[in-house]
Write a structure and sequence with these properties.
A hairpin with a 2-residue loop joins strand 6 and strand 7. This protein has a three-stranded antiparallel sheet. The chain is built from two helices and eight strands. It is α+β, with helices and mostly antiparallel strands.
Length: about 240
């Protein structure tokens, strides 16, 4: 009576396909259908294998092999013109030219250094020449023959010969035109002759050049001519 219900013969028809049941938690004899999950749609395969063995890709056109980019080979690489390698003879010739140029440059630098040392030496000897000139001028004021003056003059001449061999040149002569590039005016003296205006009247200290380069300007006294002023008598007014 309380057992499993008896199925009548007229109820014996094929049961529909339903998902399996599970027992109700409150009544083990009561069953509740299990909800079936909705199956996910199955995506169609991306590729289809045809009989000839080609596997085309859906949605993407198959590229022609002739249209495919070709790899960049060594022949297609942009090349720069190769620098020709100089031969052994050319390398030797270039090395000799560089050596010759280096020798010339060293010679020029050596000549400049030699000129600088020579100029410094001559400049230091100029005060000695000035003192010799003063001694000769002071002794020349006496009328008597002085053997010491002649000895000093000989030493002075010997200095001139040696220094001229180094290219030293003395300048400064009375009566020449005043040149501010080589003369240094120490004073002005009035002259009556207009032709002596701005001329060198006296040499205070001689000037020197070394191979055309000015070492020291000559100190001179320059003549200054001024025309006499004409006095004008006042004119009387007519009555």
């Amino acid at each position: 009576m309380f057992g499993r219900p008896i199925r009548h013969p007229w109820y014996d028809w094929p049961e529909p396909l339903e998902p399996p049941s599970r027992a109700h938690p409150s009544n083990p004899w009561r069953t509740s259908p299990v909800r079936a999950r909705t199956p996910r749609p199955v995506q169609p395969p991306e590729t289809e294998i045809s009989g000839d063995g080609d596997v085309p890709i859906r949605g993407k056109p198959f590229l022609d092999p002739s249209d495919a980019p070709t790899p960049l080979g060594s022949d297609d690489m942009p090349t720069t013109p190769a620098t020709p390698t100089p031969s052994r003879d050319e390398q030797l010739r270039n090395a000799l030219l560089e050596l010759e140029e280096s020798k010339k440059r060293l010679d020029r630098e050596r000549d400049k250094e030699r000129e600088r040392v020579r100029a410094d030496l001559v400049v230091q000897l100029l005060p000695v020449l000035d003192n010799l000139d003063r001694s000769i001028q002071a002794s020349a004021q006496r009328d008597t023959q002085d053997p010491l003056r002649e000895g000093v003059r000989m030493v002075r001449d010997q200095f001139d010969e040696v220094l001229q061999g180094f290219g030293l040149e003395v300048f400064g002569t009375a009566g020449t035109a005043f040149d501010p590039a080589i003369h240094e005016a120490m004073a002005l003296v009035a002259v009556d002759d207009p032709s002596q205006h701005r001329n060198v009247m006296e040499i205070v200290r001689a000037g020197y050049r070394l191979e055309g380069r000015l070492l020291r300007a000559a100190q001179v006294i320059v003549g200054d001519y001024r025309a006499p002023e004409v006095e004008q008598s006042p004119t009387s007014e007519e009555q």
